[in-house]
Structure formats: C-alpha cells, structure tokens
Amino acid sequence: MSPATPAPEHGGAALELLVHGVGGATPQSMLDDPRTFRVTGDETAAVHRRAEDLDAEDHPERYAARPVPEAYVWSNLTSGDGARALWLLLLPFMVVNLAHWMRPPAPGRPGLVRLYGVLVRLLALSLTVLLTAAVCEVALDLTAWQCAGTAACADGRAWLGFVAADRAGWWSVPGRRLALAAVLPAALVALLWYLSRRTWSAYEAQRPPTGDEPPGPATARDDPRPALGRPGFWYGRRLVARLRAAHTAAGLLTVAAALAAPVRHDTGVLATTGLALRAALAGCAVLVLWSVCGRGRSERRLDQRVESAVFTRLPALASGLLALTAVHTAWARPGWASSGTLPGNAVFGALTLAQGGLVVALGAVALLLQRPRRDPRTALAGLGGPATAMLACALGGVMAGGVAQWVADRLDGGATPGTPDSPLAGPPVLLSWQASVLPVLLLLLLVPAVLLGARTALAARRLRSAVEGDYADESPDRVRTGQIAATRARASLTDSAPLLVGVVSGTALLLGAVAVAGAWSSDEVPGSAFSGAHPAIAALATTTQALGSWMIGFGFLLFVTWGRRAYRDASARRTIGILWDVGTFWPRAAHPFAPPCYAERAVPDLTWRMSSWTRHTGGRLVISGHSQGSVLAAAAVWQLPPATRARVALLTYGSPLERLYGRWFPAYFGPEALRGLHRAVHCWTNLHRATDPIGGPVRVPAEDGRPGVDAPVLRDPVAYGRSRAHPLPEPVLGHSDYQADPAFAERRAALLDRLPPALPRQRTDGFSDQGSSGRSSG
C-alpha cells in the first residue's frame, strides 16, 4: 500500500507531508519504499523523501500529476537513548504538568486563570519536596539515624561499619552520620537540575520560527488567535529557567531542613547559630514561594529577557545554606545519641494536608472557570485538571512510601519495621497508613471495573444489529458480527475514562484524609492502633498493613525494574516512549523536572517545512497526520501565517483531537478552538472508525459555506466476509492502517482539488514575521 497514490492532474506542484502517531514509525514504512533519504533534520527528528523524489524542490513541474510524499519522523524525540528510561521515575511530575493545561476556557477572566496556574505550580513544588523528603527518609532517617545507630541493624553490614554508633569512630557521631547521608538527596536534586538544564537548552531555549515584536496593548487584548497559534506558546525559556531554580532550591532546602530538625537543646554559640540558620532557611523558602507564585506563562511574544538575579541565584543560596547547616549539624555534642525516628517526619503529614487543600482549591477555581460556558463534552465537568493533579499526588505518595517501605524491609531483615520485635522504628507512621489504604483503594476500583465490563458486554450485543446494517449487502455471519461488535464496544471504553479517573481521584483524596487522621490520632501503625479492637477488625488492620506494605514496595520495585529494562532494551524504551508521546506534548508550565516537551521541537519543524515549501515552489500542501501526529499537525497549522495557511490542507485520521484533547484540554482544543482551526485552514477532512479506541470525530459542523470536517465513518473491516475481491478474511484494523482504506486516497485528492493552483515559483527564503500577541495562561 502506497500513501502516494496519484492525485488530480491539475493545480501544479503539491506536497503531502506525512506525520506519524504514537509509538513511532520508520521513513521506509511511511513512504512504502526501502530507499529513502533524509532531506532535512538530524538523527532526532527529520524529514525523509523517496530517492526518486529528491529533486522535487528544484523541478516541481515534473510532479504536477501527483503529490510529492514526505515523512516527518519524530519518534526519537520521546524514545531515543537509554537515558530516556529514567524519565519513568518522573511520572508524577509529568502528570501534574498535564493538570496545568486542563483548565476550562475562560475568556475575560484572567484573574481566575492566573490563580489556577499558581495552584498547580504550588502542587508541582510540593511533589519536588515530597520526592526529596522520601530520599531523606531513606538516607538520613532509616539508614544513618536508625540502622547505623542500632547495633542489631548495623552488625553484618560492612558498608555501615565506619558510621555505626557502637564503633565509636569519627563518623559515628549522629550529626556527622546525617551530614554524610545528606549527600545522597543533595546529589539527586543536582541530577534533576542537570537533566532539566540539559533538556532546557535543547527544547525551551530553541527559538521557534515566529516573530517577536509585541503588538500594542489593544491588539494583544483582542488577538483572535487561539493560544496554540501565538508566537510565544512554544517558547518557555524564561519560565522553565525560573521554575528550575525554584525547585532546585526547594529540594536543597528540604535536605537542609532534615539536617537541622534533630539538632535540639543547644546552648551558647551553637544555639545562636542554629537559630540564625533556621531563619535563613525560612527566608529562602519564602523567596522560593515568591518565585513560583509570582509569574506564569506569557505567550504574547518571544520572551527572551534574562530572569532576575534574585531568582537565578536561588540554587546557589540554598546550596550555601545546606553546607552551613551540614557543618552545624556535624558539630560534636556530648551525649548525643540517635533513637526512635528522626525528628521532623511530620513533614509527610503536612505535605499530604497541603496537597489535599490545594487540590480542593483547584477544584473550586475550575468550577468557577467552567460555570459560564459549560460544554457537556468536557471531561468531569471541568474538573479534569484537579482530578489529574490528585493522581499526580497519589503517584508521588506511592513512590515515596514505596521506596521508604522497601528500604526499611531490606534493612530490617526478616522483621517488620515498627513492630516490637524489630530493631528499627521504621518509616513515618503516615507512610504505613497510606500503604494500608492502598488495598482498600484497589478493592473499591473493582466496582467500576466490573460495571464497565458488564456495560461493554451489553453494548456489544446491542451493536450486532448496527454491524449487520453496515454490511447489509452480504450474508450475515454470527461469529464475524460478534467480533466486529465487540471491537466497537471495547473502543467505546475510551469515553468512560473520565468517570474512572474521577472515581480514582476522589477515592484517593478521601482515603488520604483517612490515613492522615488515623496516623495523627493514634501515632501508631494500623496493626498496633487496632490491636485492642474486635479480633476481626484487628486482623483486618494487620492484613491491610502487611498487604499494603508489600504492594507499595512492589510498586516501587516495578518502577525501578521497568526503567532498568527500558535502559537496556530499545523495544521496552519505545513502549515507555508511547507514554511520553501523549504526556509530554505540552510544554513544562508547572514542573521543570518533568520530561521535556517534544512539541517544542516538532511543531517548529513542521511549521518551517510547510512555509519553506509553499514559499519556494508556490505549490499546494496537504499535511497528513495520524493519531498524535494529527495533534502536531494541527498545532503547526495554527502557527502558520495566513498567506501560508491559504495553501495548506489538513487531513487527520485516527485523531484524538476532540475525543481526548478536546475533552481533557478544553481551553486549547475545545469546540471554539477546533471551529477556529476549521476557519483558519483552507480545508480540512477527518477520517475515523467506530472500531478505533483512540481516534474519533472532531465534531466540527459545516458553517459559512464550508463543509463539515468529519467524513462518514469508515467501514472496518473493509470487507465483511470472503469474496472474489477478498478471498481471505480482512482484519479489523481499529487504530492502524488508515491509508489502506480506499477512502484515504479519495479524500486526499478532494482536498488537493480544493486548494488554489500553484503560484509562480518563488525563491524567497526565510519565514515571515507573524507578530506576537496573546494572553497569559496562568
């Protein structure tokens, strides 16, 4: 099957720019030719062409009878070298970043939009603190404070011998053990800073091909272009740099606070120094909060200003305070010994409460934003952002509790941390309570899972008549009909995702509150807290605690092993890359340590390519996007200047533009935005199947003499049963192989027919200035 079937033989030169979807593709498979060459780009993302078409730019007159096919391959942006596997550990950061983009549309309400952005950025900051606190719990509390301070734990562990309290060595002093252990969380924060800095220079700091002259205030305020069409949307250089400095400082301050917490009952100079250090830490924390709350995204122009030195030097200031705190804590104090848990573990409870309060506040703001213009298709009635933010907090809690529980189990041998027969006091009580509610959460999720399964089975039975109607000209086959109907029913499960996300998020919020209340009221692990209750209740508490501890530790181990496998195995790395294809389309607006936004490279690439073709040849162009590629194509078309868009047609197939992006990101892909795209581009057609679990209709009707975007639903399979034309059974394709359908070539030819004829060849190079305007997105 070739994607370059002949188009109408009139209208002059034409180019078909193919953009693949999730999971990646090769240029050979996209162009249906083993001999392909890279015409522009690099190893990360490039445009490829068949060998026989290499001279199409210089001789467009030879290609009047068919479009020149080109393939834009961007899969290495998300599934490249082995280091990308480490991004799996940054999953909570990616999810909370998505919450920023899920706000409802709110024209004329900039105050609420800014407040929404501030709340999401504060939630993102809390996740950085939570991750750092979890590593501090492992390194400082469980290892340096508890295990090294207890002979029963330190014996038999040669790597702890030089810091063990019973060895009376120089490092055996509690403060020195803590200062040495603080190297681990500090190194983690430094690694996150380095990864963010490196990807920042490769993504956010790359200037997109748009003008940077700001319009007048009135023009900016009345700019009709959607956010994705504004010049500064794909240029987050300044904001990410500011957030990176703030989050790095927050992580280092968390380590410093963990070092300062156990130092008590000092007198004289040590007491004065400790008080001054605590005041300095508090002052630096205020600067971090000011930095995070003070500024959001600005899309009105390419903001190339340098950030204030007050904020860029926050990591250096926090590093200095951390070093001074380490020296102060390491100072020898007569009679100081470690026992119990490290003071300061209440931070986990405070973080949980703060995250719950921020999620509730975010939900209230989202409802206020959604109220004036409620769209029934919007996921969770506009609460998709708060629900997703809650999922990010839950993921962070599972990872934090998992690493602490797993390490505690390893250090404690065969005993259970926190029980009387264990030499270790174990992780904070709250983490044990949070682990204990995990089995309850999974049990409660069985209810919607069973209901969805039953509803899908009933839907498959109802769809039998519709399937037989679609193939009324062929003899019915009960087995074949059931297969097609079941595939359609399973594909419709995607539309139930908002309900499932809402149930998970709401249940996680409720059970999180129960865990905090139980931990603070009893100050004991669940098994001990219910030891005097009815035997059945006590047994249930003990069972859920043990099961939850195993599950949360296993979950963390699964993350680590999956990441390690992906580091070594390219196929596993590509699977992880599929997650990032969907999750990292959006710029890093809330969390600077999230995986980078590949669209900040892909969208300018596509914009440049479309502009250079139309300006150089004066020809027509159809950009053809499958799945996630259709989202990139739409974003690139929005960035084009009007003169170029007049020569561009958009062909989308298997597209999640409305089904996923329109419902979950209504401010950017909602009904108004998609109708605006329909009016902006010269012509647009969307192909979809009822068996596709990802793509669907874009629901843009005909208006102003323009036909509707959605073509009639494609039959899948193309042939119902065996025939002379199809002697073997045709597969149910679902989300794949749209180009194999005869309707694909017909619709592409119709789009090319509707484009204006080619202009006389132009040799002007460069990119026209689009101006720059827009509003802040919070």
From TrEMBL:
Taxonomic superkingdom: Bacteria
Annotated spans, Disordered: 205-228, 754-778
UniProt-listed InterPro entries: AB_hydrolase_fold
Keyword vocabulary terms for this entry: Membrane, Transmembrane, Transmembrane helix
Biased composition (Polar residues): 765-778
Bilayer-crossing regions: 85-103, 115-135, 178-195, 245-263, 275-293, 314-334, 346-369, 381-408, 428-454, 497-517, 537-560
Name by which UniProt lists this protein: Integral membrane protein
Organism: Streptomyces omiyaensis
Lineage, opening ranks: Bacteria, Bacillati, Actinomycetota, Actinomycetes, Kitasatosporales
